[in-house]
Structures are given as structure tokens and as C-alpha cells.
Amino acid sequence: MTRAIPLLRRLLAPVIARSRSFRCDERGVTAIEFGILALPFFMLVFAIIETSMMFFAGQILDSAVEDASRAVRTGQAQTYTIDEFRGLVCEYTFGLFDCNQIRLKVDTLPDFTSTAIAPPVQNCTETTCTWTMVEEFDPGARKEVMQVFAYYRWPLLIVMPYFNLKNQPDNYRLLAATRVFRNEPF
């Protein structure tokens, strides 16, 4: 029996030595760690990119409405149609938006306290929403209080669980820009 133990040790010695060297071997650790951490890392990177693009698009739309509203405020848009005003807004978006999809509403108000914002989309199903806002363009007369609304459905490229920027059912985010001002005495 005592002879069997040294024989067993001699037979298992290469296996034990390899298991010890395998335990201490650190080759490939970086690849394994990258495989474990790559998914959360890239999800975070893509979430940051999607969020920044969405906020950038919102700022561009807001700035475009501000700049285009200047033509209404100064009386330069008195002869414009809604498509010409949409073209003016589109000039300030730097090609970031599909200009045919920008929804506009320019109308007069009796005073600054009577502005009202109604939801521009309703009747949402799982795949789409219906626009309920009627587009109109009334540049108003001198010293009238005006309100300008612009809406755009921004397509989201990355929709992940627990990180969801969409507020429309079909992976879109509704961006809005509003201006309320009094026309100058043109």
C-alpha cells in the first residue's frame, strides 16, 4: 500500500504541476475581462452619444425657431406662406432635420396670459401616433402677441432596456420649440 502512494504521486505529478501553472497563468486575462466589461461599456458609450445627439437636436430646433421668429416679429414674414416659413426654419437647422417633417403653428394671441399648449399628437398605438395639431401660419399685425410652435419627431437609433429616451411608441422622441413675443411696430 505504501508503494502505491508514491506511484500515484508520480503518475499525478504532471497533472498537478499543470494545474498549478494553469492557476498562475495570466495570459488571456485581458481578453476575458474585456469580454465581461465590453457590453456595459459600449452600452454606456452609446447611451451618452444618443443623449447628446438628442439634446443637440433640441437646441438646434429651438435656435432655428428663435431665428426664424425674428422674421415674424419684424414684419418681414407678412407675405410668407407656411411652406416659406418652414423653409426659413429649415435654413437654420443646418441639414440636421428632415424639413418636411417639421410641424409649425404660428398664430396670434389676445395677450401674453392666454397662451395654451395642446398636445400635438394623440391616439398613439404601439407603432405610431396621429398628429392632432393643425398647421397654420398667421404672421399677425403690428404689436400683436404671437406664439410660434415647432415640433419634430426625432428618430432614436439606440433604444436599450433601462435607458429609454423615447416618448413616442415607435422609437421617436417628440422635440418641441416655442416662442411667444409681441410683434414690433413695423
Structural class: alpha+beta
Assembly state: single chain
Strand content: 15-25%
Q: What gross morphology would you assign?
A: rod-shaped
Number of strands: 6
| SSE run | HHHEEEEEE
Number of distinct helices: 3
* Total domains: 1
- Radius of gyration, taken over Cα atoms and rounded to an integer in Å: 31 Å
Average of the residue pLDDT scores = 87
- In the sheet with the most strands, the strands line up as 4-1-5-6
Helix content: 40-55%
Uncertain ranges? none
Question: Could you please describe the fold and organization of this structure?
Answer:
This protein has 186 residues and is α+β, with helices and mostly antiparallel strands. It has one domain. 41% of the residues lie in helices and 19% in strands. The protein has three helices and six strands. The chain has helices spanning 4-24, 29-73, 82-91, and strands at 103-109, 121-122, 130-131, 136-137, 145-155, 172-182. Strands 4-1-5-6 form a four-stranded mixed beta sheet, covered by helices on one side. A hairpin with a 7-residue loop joins strand 2 and strand 3. Helix 2 crosses helix 3. The longest helix has 45 residues, at 29-73. The mean pLDDT is 87.
Structural key phrases:
186 residues; alpha+beta; four-stranded mixed β-sheet; two-stranded antiparallel ribbon
Summarize the structure.
The protein is α+β, with helices and mostly antiparallel strands and 186 residues long. It is 41% helix and 19% strand. It has a 4-stranded mixed β-sheet, with helices on one face. It has a two-stranded antiparallel sheet with strand order 2-3.
